[in-house]
Amino acid sequence: MSKTWLITGAGRGFGREFAIAALGRGDRVAATARNTEALKDLVDIYGDAIIPLSLDVTDREAVGAAVATAHERLGSLDVVVNNAGYGLFGTVEEISEQQLRDQLEVNLFGVLHVTQAVLPILREQGAGHVVQISTVGGIAAFPTLGGYHASKWALEGLSESLAQEVAQFGISVTLIEPGGFSTDWAGSSAVHAEPLPHYDALRAAFVEQQKNTPPEFTGDPTAAGPALLNVVDAEEPPLRVLFGLMPTQVVPSLYQQRLDTWKAWEPVSLDANGHSSS
What we know:
Layout: E1 4-7, H1 13-24, E2 28-33, H2 40-46, E3 50-54, H3 60-74, E4 79-82, E5 88-89, H4 97-125, E6 128-133, H5 146-166, E7 171-178, E8 191-192, H6 200-211, H7 221-233, E9 240-243, H8 245-264, H9 266-273
Parallel strand pairs: 1-2, 1-4, 2-3, 4-6, 5-8, 6-7, 7-9
Helix pairs in contact: 1-7, 3-4, 4-5
């Protein structure tokens, strides 16, 4: 059976590829973008199957109106994809308070606005799937991306709690955690803090490290759409799923390091308990 979708940030990048994959197999999509001109070519191809909606996810009232329109036009909302977001580049010392607040407004509060707006509809349906586009940077952290990581680690915690809360209503939640993909995430859509010279060497080393990354570690965005279809069509969709080769190589060793550190420091952990471990 065909599905109905609401996808935020569908004008480019992953959001666009998700829309194309859904539309290409006959699903119907309410696609939001700050500028719906970016969706015009998809309207030309898919006609009434796509509903372009202008939306800034930081505007809570506008989100409510867009969700209501999507529901009215589609009749149901089977899959809701919170994809709108951007990257903030800068060390923790370099980023301004306003830059971090703006990052959280889009990457965290924008997701909250959409999620809270769709939940009454999904509860009433007794079914639905909320897909949160996170990142490998939601479970790992790299230098010069602390503000971005803060928004995505918060999204991960919010979504894991959400999954436990809404399972009783027949609603699934999945966190998609992509590695590096050849999208515009680090390009014109990104925000960069004013650099401090103290971190120039760190930045240079990080750039050099990126240059030495195997080309196969950079995923093809056009493959992400079909991959998401597999997730949303699953009888029991996962809470988390990695997208791309890089996370599958990085994450296991990262978790092993954490387990090893916690084990090594277990005596201190038990001391902090305040009771005899015997």
